[in-house]
Amino acid sequence: PPESPEAAWQSALLRSAQQGMEDIALTGAAEVLFLRAKRASAASAWFDALSDAAWTRGFCVARVSVLADRCFDTLDGLVRNLVLSLRAPGAGERDRGWAPLLDAFLAGHDSPAAALADFDRGAAVFGTHGDLAVLTREYLEAAGRPARPASRIDAWLAGTDLSRVESRGTALAALSAPTALRALGECSRLARALGHRGLVLIFEGAEVLTRLSASRRDGGFTVLRELIDNADGARGLVSAQLWVSATALLYDGARGIALSGPLSSRVLAPTSGSADLPPPHRPLVDLSAPPGPRVRRSGRVRRPPVRRPLVRRPRVRRRRHRRPPGGTARSRPPRTGH
Q1: Among 26, 30, 19, which Cα is nearest to 188's?
Q2: Concatenated DSSP letters for 165-202?
Q3: Among 59, 146, 173, 321, which one is most buried in terms of CB atoms within 10 A?
Q4: 30: closest CA among 199, 272, 244?
Q5: Cα 43 to chain center, whole Å?
Q6: How far is CA 186 from the centre of its chain?
Q7: Hey, how many other C-beta atoms are within 10 angstroms of the C-beta on 187?
Q8: pTM above 0.70, yes or no
Q9: Element (H, E) at 267
Q10: How far apart are CA 206 and CA 71, in angstroms?
Q11: What is the pairing mode between strands 198-204 and 59-65?
Q12: Is the distance from CB of 66 to CB of 211 less than 8 angstroms?
């Protein structure tokens, strides 16, 4: 049977998102995308398909629900649940979290020493030097007896300041609201250092922001704006695609993001592009098919060509002897014999 316009549009959105994954895997960029859905169940089903596509392409995936007691104004709680729900390509349904991610990395090497050397090379390339990087290396060093480093990772995620409970040379500050964005960026760099192509992070049910008090709602809008502005910065995320899903209440409601000028200018700004084929990297996409002609089917998702970087040769300046004005070239002074 022919595909319905709604199904054709959602398939086109899925291909567009996959093309975006290929782009960020090559360039190392990061992006924050918003999805508008009539029903939360429709968004959940579409994210199921997106997660499968991301795992197939070598991305780690994490999905969390935005709740009233765990919202963007308390970003550390969301980051904590993202790390705990992280699932690597090929991992089982129960193999979620940071420790299973590291166990899979160890299993892919001939020896713990080879895994540690591989991690150190990746960490040097992607610049991982934060608290989670220290805990990750501790875990890899303790291969075969991971109980203690695993408990330290759990304590850090729970918000424990390890520098107060552990007599170690390296002080590790607790995961908190001020450090959550930095920890999220570190998580994306570590995923690349561990050999994955990137991260796909999904926040579902963000319309709960409209039911919060004015102060908490404004705080959540500020964090979202900062996330958009800093996702692709020097200290931001690497090869990461972040999705924020919500119903129309967040976008069109009286208590939605229209109340925040800085945020609405980034999300609700008009974008160019044809209505029959959603382009990659559009900040806001609608899960419902637009009115008009039938969506034309696009081609398959292609990996961007990897171009060799241009190697520039250093310029060598030759020394030239200048003639003095109105005279001849300066001659070398005669040698004196001694």
Answers
A1: 30
A2: H---SS--PPP-TTTHHHHHHHHHHHHHHTT--EEEEE
A3: 59
A4: 199
A5: 20
A6: 9
A7: 27
A8: yes
A9: helix 261-267
A10: 8
A11: parallel
A12: no
| 133 touches 204 (CB < 8 A) | no
Reading the block at residue 140, the tokens are: 């890899």
Query: Using an 8 Å Cβ cutoff, are 23 and 281 in contact?
Result: yes
Q: Torsions phi, psi of 200, nearest 5?
A: -120, 115
State whether the Cα torsion 63-67-71-75 is positive or negative: negative
- Spell out the long-range contacts of 224-230 with Cβ–Cβ below 8 A and sequence spacing 24 or more: 224/32, 224/72, 224/257, 224/263, 225/260, 225/262, 225/263, 225/266, 226/181, 227/32, 227/72, 227/181, 228/32, 228/263, 228/266, 228/267, 229/266, 230/181
As a whole number of angstroms, the distance between CA 196 and CA 192 comes to: 5
Asked if residues 135 and 172 have their Cβ atoms less than 8 Å apart, the reply is yes
How are strands ordered across the β-sheet holding 198-204? Answer: 59-65, 198-204, 240-246, 30-36, 284-286
Residue 272 tokens read as 């160019």
Q: What is the pLDDT along the chain (338 residues), one digit of tens a residue?
A: 677 888 999 999 999 999 999 999 999 999 999 999 999 999 999 999 999 999 999 999 999 999 888 888 888 888 999 999 999 999 998 999 999 999 999 999 999 999 999 999 999 999 998 899 999 999 999 987 888 899 999 999 998 887 644 555 566 888 888 889 899 999 999 999 999 999 999 999 999 999 999 999 999 999 999 899 988 877 789 999 999 999 999 999 999 999 999 999 999 876 554 555 678 899 999 999 887 655 555 556 666 665 544 333 344 444 444 555 555 544 455 555 54
Which pair of tokens denotes residue 307?
């171009």
What are φ and ψ of residue 127, in 5° steps? Answer: 65, 50
- Residue 167's CB is within 10 A of a number of other CB atoms, namely 6
Written as six digits, the tokens of 257 are: 């993001």
- The answer to whether the beta carbons of residues 149 and 142 sit under 8 Å apart is yes
Write out the two tokens for 55: 């795992």
Q: What angle do CA 232, 237, 240 make, to 5 degrees?
A: 95
